[in-house]
Specification:
The chain is α+β, with helices and mostly antiparallel strands. It has 3 domains: 4-234, Histidine kinase-like ATPase, C-terminal domain (Heat Shock Protein 90, 2-Layer Sandwich); 241-374, 2-Layer Sandwich (Ribosomal Protein S5, domain 2); 502-543 and 561-633, Heat shock protein 90, C-terminal domain (Four Helix Bundle (Hemerythrin (Met), subunit A)). Helices cover 37% and strands 19% of the residues. The protein has 21 helices and 22 strands. The strands form 4 sheets. It has a 9-stranded mixed sheet, with helices on one face. Strands 10-11-14-12-13 form a 5-stranded mixed sheet, sandwiched between helices. A 5-stranded mixed sheet has the order 15-17-16-19-18. Strand 4 (134-142) and strand 5 form a beta hairpin. The termini are far apart. Bound molecules: adenosine-5'-diphosphate. Adenosine-5'-diphosphate binds at residues 33, 37-38, 41, 79, 81-84, 92-93, 124-128, 175.
Length: 634
């Protein structure tokens, strides 16, 4: 059959364009990416062969071969792995399987990526990096189990946004990726160069990466002469470092292995390596990254360490082994207590898996606690990147919520801008008479600092935690208390921190409050004396158990029905305006002005909350009128 032309999806073209025209440094990483794909393909074949012996095809050794052909100017990366069908090749090599493609494209075009092409691997587009060094790439592939004449040949020179596909034959299963190297990339045909790159980037690959090496050796027949001898050599050391003793692994090796499994080029923040013995035996090598992967909030982000059973990779991400609030952790777990043919379904409630999950969860949380204690700066950096994710644990891991609460950091009215406090430190600074932990949600630091809700706190020097993540209110409400001190929102419920005796004030202003309440019927559930205001005349507060207004808006924006809750209008009995209104009330209960003011105060409270007055035009008019009156009175 003739070769058929196909066009790349738009996003692939963009990536190719980037590969060819914008990336200049570290071009050698193309080899790491291709070897990594080959290794994945062998992992899959080996796994399938566990249940289908025929796929092992004569029991040949799994391996990855590099074939440098100086005459043709081609470098081939060959594997005897799973291979691809025609449809799979179209999908895998002509599209990008990603959610969030738009953000992803933006990221790709960012300076960060342009200056650091090493980051490419992270995005799952490693194959295309071949075009950094090749004018043309051909892929000859045959799916394991398919007959020899059902192979496909995929060819592209990336020039016109297209590739061709045709049927072909291939003697063995697996994939050959053949690169026709660019003029200035011929060094990748040299033995020493390939050796160096494999050592640097692919040393941990489990399968041998082999190459035919020709050496001159003394001729055994005639000592005076030399002969050329070609031998297959393995270039990588193939160390499964997670199975080694800690003392036998260098810091450098740990880092390289991290980069290999995570495709992250930044060194990890912490490395956790241990072996558990006893009823359940396993080895775990885990990493806490220093930088948040760009796709960690995507739906298809893969959670969990790679799982090995007797050195066979069973899955590249075992989500049953790690709670999702620790999904930033990368690594490898190997256990010989699991059967080789475990499926994801079985893993979900397998006892061994539960034991391992528990153990590594504890280890990670312990490591974080240690980091917080011994290296606050590093922990602060970690928290910047992953705090938001860790915090989900409060909601999802009831058993460990106290432990996780110990790890939380918040800004507060007493921390310097940009610095954070732990809850334990907050408790230490609490005022002697203070009973609760106060917090404010729904804004940034600047808006919190000028918030009318914090007037009394400021006056009394009571520290308030400033919570800026959108779901903090839900998390904190769920947590309820920390070391027996309850959390109290500064913007919800009744507080008793104000000046004067509230009971007396209630008596004094009781009738006025009633009138205002009647005037605002249907808008607020109650008008009451405020225990939190100092300078402002009024504010609106949510009920103790209601969602805060920001959350209500967020849910509404997501199209969800949420109860609005009972709003309460609080008035400041020490404010001049309220005192005047009280005078007016004593003189004439039916005063029209009193009613008008009540409405205006309510609108003002909406404004303070970050909302709009009910009728902005009417509000502005009324305000202008009052200002004019003020001017003429003065
Ligand atoms: P990633 O490997 O991160 O998914 P790549 O762009 O490197 O991204 O590869 C895309 C896909 O192409 C792979 O997911 C795999 O399905 C397929 N593929 C690439 N190389 C091989 C290979 N040597 N054997 C089988 N499939 C391969």
């Amino acid at each position: 059959m003739k070769a058929k032309k196909h066009v790349f999806k738009a996003e692939v073209n963009k990536i190719l364009d980037l590969m060819i025209h914008s990336l200049y440094s570290h071009k050698e990483i193309f080899l790491r990416e291709l070897i990594s794909n080959a290794s994945d393909a062998i992992d899959k074949a080996r796994y399938e062969a566990l249940t289908d012996q025929s796929l092992a095809e004569g029991g040949e050794e799994w391996k990855i071969e590099l074939i440098a052909d100086k005459e043709a100017g081609t470098l081939t990366v060959r594997d005897n792995g799973i291979g691809m069908t025609r449809d799979e090749a179209v999908k895998a090599l002509g599209t990008i399987a990603h959610s969030g493609t738009k953000e992803f494209m933006k990221l790709l075009e960012s300076r960060e990526v342009k200056d650091n092409p090493e980051l490419i691997g992270q995005f799952g587009v490693g194959f295309y990096s071949a075009f950094m060094v090749a004018d043309q790439v051909s892929v000859i592939t045959r799916k394991a189990g398919a007959p020899a004449d059902q192979a496909v040949l995929w060819v592209s020179d990336a020039a016109d946004g297209a590739y061709t596909l045709e049927d072909t034959e291939k003697a063995s299963k697996g994939t050959d990726v053949v690169l026709t190297l660019k003029e200035d990339a011929r060094q990748y045909l040299e033995e020493w160069e390939l050796r160096k790159i494999v050592k640097q980037y692919s040393d941990f690959i489990e399968y041998p990466v082999v190459m035919a090496v020709t050496r001159s050796a003394p001729d055994p027949e005639d000592k005076e002469k030399t002969i050329e001898e070609t031998k297959e050599e393995t270039l990588n050391s193939r160390k499964a470092i997670w199975l080694k003793d800690k003392s036998a692994v260098t810091a450098e090796e740990y880092k390289e292995f991290y980069k290999h499994i995570s495709h992250d080029f930044t060194d990890p923040a912490r490395t956790i390596h241990y072996r558990a013995e006893g009823t359940t035996e396993f080895s775990a090598l885990l990493y806490i990254p220093a930088k948040r992967p760009f796709d960690i909030f995507y739906q298809d982000y893969k959670v969990g360490p790679a799982l090995y059973v007797r050195r066979v990779q069973i899955m590249d991400h075992c989500e049953a082994m790690l709670p999702s609030y620790l999904r930033f952790v990368k690594g490898v777990v190997e256990s010989s207590d699991l059967p080789l043919n475990v499926s994801r379904e079985i893993l979900q409630d397998n006892r061994t898996v539960t034991v391992i999950k528990k153990s590594i969860t504890k280890k990670v949380l312990d490591t974080l606690a240690e980091m917080k204690r011994d290296d606050a700066e590093a922990y602060g950096k970690f928290y910047e990147q992953f705090g938001r994710i860790l915090k989900e644990g409060i909601h999802h891991d009831f058993e460990r919520r106290e432990t996780i609460a110990d790890l939380l950091l918040f800004e507060s009215t007493k921390t310097e801008a940009g610095k954070k406090t732990t809850l334990a430190e907050y408790l230490e600074r609490m005022q002697p008479e203070q009973k609760e932990i106060y917090y404010i949600t729904g804004g940034d630091r600047a808006s919190a600092e000028s918030s009318p809700y914090l007037e009394v706190f400021k006056e009394k020097r009571i520290e308030v935690l400033i919570m800026t993540d959108d779901f903090d209110d839900i998390i904190i409400t769920g947590l309820g208390a920390y070391k027996e001190k309850e959390f109290q929102s500064a913007i919800k419920g009744d507080l008793d921190l104000g000046e004067g005796n509230k009971e007396e004030q209630k008596k004094e202003f009781g009738d006025l409050l009633e009138l205002m309440q009647a005037e605002l019927k249907g808008l607020v559930a109650e008008v009451r004396i405020s225990g939190r205001l100092k300078d402002s005349a009024v504010c609106l507060v949510a009920g103790e158990h209601d969602l805060d207004p920001k959350m209500v808006k967020m849910f509404q924006a997501m199209g969800q029905e949420v109860p609005k809750g009972e709003r309460v209008l609080e008035i400041n009995p020490n404010h001049e305006l309220i005192a005047r209104m009280q005078q007016l009330f004593s003189a004439d209960r039916a005063s029209a002005q009193l009613k008008e003011y009540t409405g205006l105060l309510y609108d003002q409270a909406l404004l303070l909350e970050g909302d709009k007055p009910r009728d902005p035009v009417a509000f502005a008019r009324a305000l202008s009128k009052l200002m004019a009156e003020g001017v003429s009175a003065g």
